[in-house]
Amino acid sequence: xxxxxxxxxxxxxxxxxxxxxxxxxxxxxxxxxxxxxxxxxxxxxxxxxxxxxxxxxxxxxxxxxxxxxxxxxxxxxxxxxxxxxxxxxxxxxxxxxxxxxxxxxxxxxxxxxxxxxxxxxxxxxxxxxxxxxxxxxxxxxxxxxxxxxxxxxxxxxxxxxxxxxxxxxxxxxxxxxxxxxxxxxxxxxxxxxxxxxxxxxxxxxxxxxxxxxxxxxxxxxxxxxxxxxxxxxxxxxxxxxxxxxxxxxxxxxxxxxxxxxxxxxxxxxxxxxxxxxxxxxxxxxxxxxxxxxxxxxxxxxxxxxxxxxxxxxxxxxxxxxxxxxxxxxxxxxxxxxxxxxxxxxxxxxxxxxxxxxxxxxxxxxxxxxxxxxxxxxxxxxxxxxxxxxxxxxxxxxxxxxxxxxxxxxxxxxxxxxxxxxxxxxxxxxxxxxxxxxxxxxxxxxxxxxxxxxxxxxxxxxxxxxxxxxxxxxxxxxxxxxxxxxxxxxxxxxxxxxxxxxxxxxxxxxxxxxxxxxxxxxxxxxxxxxxxxxxxxxxxxxxxxxxxxxxxxxxxxxxxxxxxxxxxxxxxxxxxxxxxxxxxxxxxxxxxxxxxxxxxxxxxxxxxxxxxxxxxxxxxxxxxxxxxxxxxxxxxxxxxxxxxxxxxxxxxxxxxxxxxxxxxxxxxxxxxxxxxxxxxxxxxxxxxxxxxxxxxxxxxxxxxxxxxxxxxxxxxxxxxxxxxxxxxxxxxxxxxxxxxxxxxxxx
DNA sequence: CTGCTCGGCCTTTTT
DNA sequence: GGCCGAGCAG
Length: 746
Hints:
The chain is built from 30 helices and 23 strands. By secondary structure, the protein is of the alpha/beta class. α5 packs across α10 and α6 packs across α9 (166-184). The chain is globular. The structure holds a DNA duplex (15 and 10 nucleotides).
């Protein structure tokens, strides 16, 4: 497509799509069903606005991932070359605004972006500082509460007012300390990147007006997954220039747990009464069979505006539900099937995607694909940068850019070992606290800290000197800085001289970091270490997806949002996995799980396979798995294919339950190389003496199935216990009332 | 005081 | 399987 007349931008679009593209001024809500060409509409709309004479710098387009932003940039550029439209994620926008305008509100632009890991560390420190580290709330839980509060634009004080229970009180106290610690360390967590700009836009009218005038046209993709802070930013930037266009699909809202609020899209018309609403419900992606499955499933959600997806695509093969004996079988058979289909020339590896509900499920797939020599990639963004050795090196870099970054200081200071242990660091932290210094500054005054001596003292002095020396390089090309850090910190020598074989790999990894930085800087001459670090931290999982490679893509259902594949497998469609165990208690949470499944199903273009196994190894134990309730909700034309050893009546399994020696042989005969899990006795021990129950025993309950006894207390008729079930979570029972089969003794 | 090893604990989804 | 804390040796 060339940059020619408006006609070129529109002639392959439907009437509703054209309407959406050519709506000029005023608020616009596009309700776009799955596969209805929404990316195409946004991209064309940006190009169309440019053709209408809107200046590129007046357009702001928000996407859900950096990858989507990059793709949109490319497509807009192909339509209108050389434009300078601002396309990014909300978080990148926030970071950029804070770097640009932060000084107006007293922020240093060299802030470090703290990821969730860092956040939890600061929360933990804050818990300790508040003397609350003995309470039973985990840093993760408190951190999640703080995150939620920020997403709702609640300051610590206002958050404290939302509840008077013990948890809220504790979290509110910690929140205040946490926020101070963050500011002192010149750190921003993910939520701050939205929270601070949103509050600034609320309070600083001058800034708000300036940015509103700058971003005259705003487009937001995946609007159903925005949170209050993001909504506030969008709204505040659309007061003088009310050209806010949002695109989304309530059925694909899958980030409620992260603070996204489905009401943002449902109430858009209330907030903008004059909004034009355009519905795109024609699907260009999938076969009718796949759409029937998707619709039947999502129809079970009660909190939902009814919507029908239509398509003119030819009917393909039926959607198939595949049943396996075990998760291991599932993985192996998948690998074989994919390999066969590719060998037969029907598809390429790149046409296939395998979706999982949880990252933990990729491991089995990984080994099966390796075993069968099926090329694959696991789409998990930061895996490389999350390796210990790379995190260590990145900590040095972060500390160079931001000397106040105490979290990075604590990580780097004794890596390689400089003889600085926990106790010495406690002394250092106490001194820093009293004198209002960063840890690095305190390390520079180590001679004044009498409690420190010997190796620790020398080590800290040396570390301080090293960081000073390296600081001079901070504006140098990123790869040079990393090289200098490796050389002068002793990190490379440590890896080189160790006898550990793994350290050879670690060395290769940190060297690879140099390559990665070089590549990053090569794309644009003036990129610094700071930009490199920001890019890494704000990367999303899909950003690492390389579609140029001819291989099977394995990813979570969440990462799959926005993508499409000719052939899709969803594995482990089992109760407790999807819907997840923790969602079962609340109907609205199960509805979100259903939307997660819906997102997965609607990624498929031609073939869709929904897989489940009868036994699944999970968290170190093998448990019976019940097929997902969502499978029951599919229409009748879905084909059920039982790929278990004997059509579901496996003698191996029966014998295994009996625990006979023959079971091992039968098992091996079926091609299972793994040893058998512990046998489950066939003899049923109903109602053994209530005193006989012990922690750690695996038991079976008539209604809830297999579970593990997690706690036993009391005696006789007062004896109580807790059992954690594979499905349905933990429940309490009175020992001599409950009917249980003991499956394995401890 | 540091640093290693072992054992117990928990595990959704992610910017 | 992976992380954290406890316990122990140097």
